[in-house]
Amino acid sequence: MFLVESCEERHWRERLHSLAGERTGPEEQINTVFEGMFRGTLRDPGAALYDLVPQEFKGAASAELAGLLRHPKSMLTVLAPPGNLTSDQAAYHVILQR
Amino acid sequence: MSALLPSCRASLLSYPLPSSSLPLERLTDELVVSASDGRLLRFNVYGGARTVNGVPLLAPTSGKERASNGMLHRVARVLHAPELSVLGELRRRPELSSLASLFASSGRLMTAVQREAVTLLAPINSVLQAGAITEEQVLAHYILQGTRYAYSLNATAYSASIHTADILALNGVIHSLSATI
């Protein structure tokens, strides 16, 4: 808990408010933020997958897939290989979840 | 935040991950999921290592895997999708036609390779022409429970005999062999 209390209140309040406009429910918003804080695995709770995937992957993704990677209400798992790939291959490397 | 925290404090730490994300720990052995194009991906866990379609998942690099709308896992190389079942792959490969003939004459062999998550070690034709193997031998030594991609067979008794590794199938994998076991 000390991690939470040591964070600047205003920064995290703004983060929660920002997510509140994008995500589906308050539990998920809070969870997203705090998972990152406690586990240290979330560099930026607001970062979309599109910002994290390699440049080659972005280049191969179809417009539809790129839209999903950017969309705040998507929930995806991306399996990113090194190097170039085709549009069809990029689609095979993405798992959609509800 | 200060008003929010006391009321949420007890539950925040016990929240599970969102059910819609797939962090590494949820990629369990023999998990089969559909990719966005409908084709199947198979995850396996060998010791502490994970593979997808036999391709290793690379170790996470801190802070670059989790996003607000999902997870990113890096894999060692581009993934290829299986197209046919183990039996279908066996039938369509000319170099395995002798073994396919043996299967065609044996209901027990056919049944054994139609299970989910199976590995077939398949001697190529020249091996079987040099010395036949029996149905019992195939059942005992050439059909393995579970999907054992080449990644998991390194430094095993099988690895030296593999002719073509990781022939992907919808219900498992085939490795063709250049020698009997």
List the helices and strands and how they pair.
The complex is a heterodimer of chains A (98) and B (181).
Chain A: H1 2-6, H2 9-20, H3 26-39, H4 49-52, H5 55-60, H6 63-70, E1 76-80, H7 87-92, E2 94-96
Antiparallel strand pairs in A: 1-2
Helix pairs in contact in A: 2-3
Chain B: H1 4-12, E1 31-34, E2 40-46, E3 49-52, E4 55-56, E5 66-67, E6 70-74, H2 86-92, H3 97-104, H4 107-113, E7 118-123, H5 125-130, H6 135-142, E8 143-145, H7 150-153, E9 162-169, E10 172-177
Parallel strand pairs in B: 7-10
Antiparallel strand pairs in B: 1-2, 2-3, 3-4, 5-6, 7-8, 9-10
Summarize it.
The complex is a heterodimer of chains A (98) and B (181). With 98 residues, chain A is mainly α.
Describe this protein's structure.
The complex is a heterodimer of chains A (98) and B (181). By secondary structure, chain A is mainly alpha-helical. Chain A is 56% helix and 8% strand. Chain A contains seven helices and two strands, in the order ααααααβαβ. Chain A has a two-stranded antiparallel ribbon with strand order 1-2. The radius of gyration of chain A is 15 Å and the shape is elongated. Chain A starts with a helix and ends with a strand. Chain B is α+β, with helices and mostly antiparallel strands and 181 residues long. Chain B is 27% helix and 26% strand. In chain B, the strands form three sheets. A four-stranded antiparallel beta sheet of chain B has the order 1-2-3-4, with no helix packed on it. In chain B, strand 3 and strand 4 form a beta hairpin. Chain B is elongated, with a radius of gyration of 21 Å. The relative contact order of chain B is 0.15. The chains are: A mainly alpha (98), B alpha+beta (181). At the A-B interface, helix 2, helix 3, helix 4, helix 6 and strand 1 of A face helix 1, strand 5 and strand 6 of B.
